[in-house]
Amino acid sequence: MMHFYNTLVYWYLQNKRDLPWRKTKNPYLIWLSEIILQQTRVDQGLDYYLKFSEAFPTVLALANAEEDDILKLWQGLGYYSRARNLHFSANYIVNELNGKFPNSYKDLLKLKGVGDYTASAIASICFNEPTAVVDGNVYRVLSRYFGIKTAINSTKGIKEFKQLAQKLITDEDPGRYNQAIMEFGAKQCKPQSPNCEQCLLNTSCVAREKKLVNDLPVKEKKIKIKQRYFNYLVLNTHDHTLIQQRKGKGIWQNLYEFPLIESEKELTFKELIASPMLTSYFGEEKISAHLFNTEVIIHKLSHQHLFTKFWIITTEGMPNNAISWNEFDAYPVPILIHNFVEKFKNNQ
């Protein structure tokens, strides 16, 4: 096992990427980077990290920010609950912990949105606590090197890989080792077509020896993808439009969108005009409508696909709660809405 450990650290020191969060042990900045990089590639998350660390350089600055400003800065990154959890936890740290960032794995787990992986990363990098990280990269490296066929998304697999990872880590700079194994998975032991011939661990890798590289790690079948049908009503009258804020616990909580009719199947023009939802949004106003996108836009989320139509609505009068199109950019919106608005403006 020491061969595995030492080889990874040696490889990391020779090959690690120059990333801004690797130049600090400030737990706030490490926390910020780790939350951004959940479900996000480094090349995409880097710009967001730079924007966030500039706009909110301290946990106090983040706690004092308006949620809409945080969501607007997060726009396009997806999984918006991460941004809301950051804000909630920043307030918890400031108000309940007197601004003192938690300094142990156990206490880090108390932060909303922080699980085993993130707590392990912060505790090891910032506080030298030997708590092993287990993320997608780590699962892949460990399953291939040790030839483990247990499904990584099963209860048994999660426990087995965590125990193995914990056996491998030592008290000597655990943060460096954790970053080494994650980096190795991201750059060397890649999901598709890893360059095993150039791998420093190739002589002792079980997957390479047994020709299992493409079969590991094992994952149980994904849950069924839900299909939803969205019909957005885009008011465009006298340079004004209508937006509303999404509430509840579903997708895009607290983001803004156009009035929405969700249906069980694709709506035709006649079905749209006959919908009582139109009256609930626009009252008894006489309206006209036409479809903006000739083909349905399929927006894919982790467990659901949104089949989306944007209907351009014009009315004779102006709804009381309409806003100017010039104001629209100030509101945080899902990337689906943002991309539509960019195309819509270019067509005007």
Rg from Cα: 24 Å
Could you describe the largest sheet, including whether it forms a barrel?
A: 5 strands, mixed
Contiguous helical run count? 16
SSE pattern: HHHHHHHHHHHHEEEEEHHEEEEHH
Q: Return the structural class.
A: alpha+beta
What is the general shape? elongated
- Strand proportion: 5-15%
The oligomeric state is: single chain
Average predicted local confidence, pLDDT: 94
Q: Give the CA-CA distance, first to last residue.
A: 63 Å
Helix content: 40-55%
The parts where pLDDT drops under 50 for at least 5 residues are none
Strand tally is 9
Describe the fold and architecture.
Helices cover 44% and strands 12% of the residues. By secondary structure, the chain is an alpha+beta fold. The strands form 3 sheets. Strands 1, 5, 6, 7 and 8 form a 5-stranded mixed β-sheet that branches. A hairpin with a 3-residue loop joins strand 7 (297-300) and strand 8 (304-315). Helix 2 (27-36) crosses helix 3. The radius of gyration is 24 Å and the shape is elongated.
Quick gist of this model?
With 348 residues, the chain is α+β, with helices and mostly antiparallel strands. The chain contains 16 helices and nine strands.
Give me some keywords for this one.
about 10% strand, 5-stranded mixed beta sheet, about 350 residues, elongated, two-stranded antiparallel sheet, alpha+beta, 9 strands
Write the topology of this structure.
Layout: H1 2-15, H2 27-36, H3 42-55, H4 59-63, H5 67-74, H6 81-96, H7 105-108, H8 116-127, H9 136-146, H10 155-168, H11 174-187, H12 206-209, E1 226-235, E2 240-241, E3 244-245, E4 256-257, E5 260-263, H13 269-273, H14 276-282, E6 287-291, E7 297-300, E8 304-315, E9 323-324, H15 325-328, H16 335-346
Parallel strand pairs: 1-8
Antiparallel strand pairs: 1-5, 2-9, 3-4, 6-8, 7-8
Helix pairs in contact: 1-11, 2-3, 2-8, 8-11, 9-11
